[in-house]
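Supplementary Methods S3. Complex input for the 1-deoxynojirimycin-bound model.
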Amino acid sequence: MDTTKKWWQKEVIYQIHPASFKDSNNDGVGDLQGIISKLSYLHDLGITMIWLSPIYCSPMVDNDYDISDYQQINPRFGTMADFDALLAQAKALGIKVIMDLVINHTSDQHKWFQKAIQDPNSKYRDYYILRPGKDGHAPNNWRSNFGSGSAWSLLPGEKNLYYHHVFSPQQPDLNWENPELRQALYRMINWWLAKGLAGFRIDAITFIKKDQDFADITPDGKDGLGKVKRKAENRPGIAALLHELRVNTFDKYDAITVGEASGVPYEQLTQFIGPQGYFSMIFDFHYADVDIESGSEWFKRTHWTVSEFKQLLFRSQLAIQKVGWGANFLENHDQPRSVSKYIKDPKYQNQIGATALALLYFLLRGTPFIYQGQELGMVNAKRQTIAEFDDVSSHNNYARALAEGYSKTAALGFVNQRSRDNARTPFQWDNTVNAGFNEGHQPWLGLAQHCDQFNYANEKDDPYSTYQFY
Ligand code: NOJ
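Predicted complex, serialized as structure tokens:
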């Protein structure tokens, strides 16, 4: 591989899930002013870059991964002036900012989709993937990624015209076959880069190319459907799209790009992260999904061993080292807390286990990504009923486990272990009300049970704490 270091190989990246970091106005939702108020905390921790999970306008069906306006800030999080202040104040501390770029799909509330619904002759109909149904059913038997049934829904107002969604029905997929749509996305991306972003983490990017035959597949579940990824994840033809994306946007700004690129086999890594690759680095999920058979079906649990985990991790490292640079992570907003997931012995599901994991991954080659709260050794929450979950895929996974014949208790168990809400509980700052997340208003998602044990106030002066280790 090319041995000259790129500027972004020296970064330590910290992921913020804005709704859960710090709520400055006590409305129950974390916000940009909250992040600004904690910049010195991040600076002291030693990070050099913030990755902000989405803060765009959104009806929040999927925690802002359903965007209704790419160039406006969601009022729940603040204003564009707040964002500009964050960028400037972070810069003053030597901290760069990257944002989440969600361009596989929009929200169904995006004006493009709304115009497509309202006017059959609108050019926006071709911004999305519309197909007539077959015999009164969806165009094919693809199952959406969140386990929420078909990857097709009827276009409102139509009797036999469906739109495609890899994720929830409120997240219609964009039609990347349309050059005008692609140019509109590039303009938006360049607008953000010109504002001073250092780059992007790029959401679900291997899903932008669908097999254009839109053919049925052999079912792989009792619902008669087959996983959409078999026809829409890293499919032939994606190379041209990813190359075009890069040269029209990121290259012009020497931006850092971190692809959420599931479904890339190691043999194809050069194309993705080699010297001429589409991205600076990509996340490799092969080892992160050691506990389940596939990232999207939580009831299919494996009986993994530590030695298997080690093999997967080494395999990943060796494959990446050959061609490029890695994006190392233990946690993110989609994963359970790493102490609860990777440490099997409950005796060590604490600061000892969290510190051991930290040691393990800081010594890997690549850029470390720290997910908020990981530096405190935050652990999974335990919820008694499905109603306590917010996450759309937790609800769908629960329903799907029931449909596959599991009991309610078992289904709840799978969801508790794997739910994305494990990572999304409010950050644990101290021992005051709501662990210091805000001043008492009920947070949008309940706190994890161990907040009075694992929190910044308790750990900051303890030489043996996970925080001190980080
Ligand atoms: C991957 C993101 O990490 C996840 O949170 C989101 O739900 C899906 N992509 C859809 O955007």
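The mean pLDDT is 96. The longest strand covers residues 96-101.
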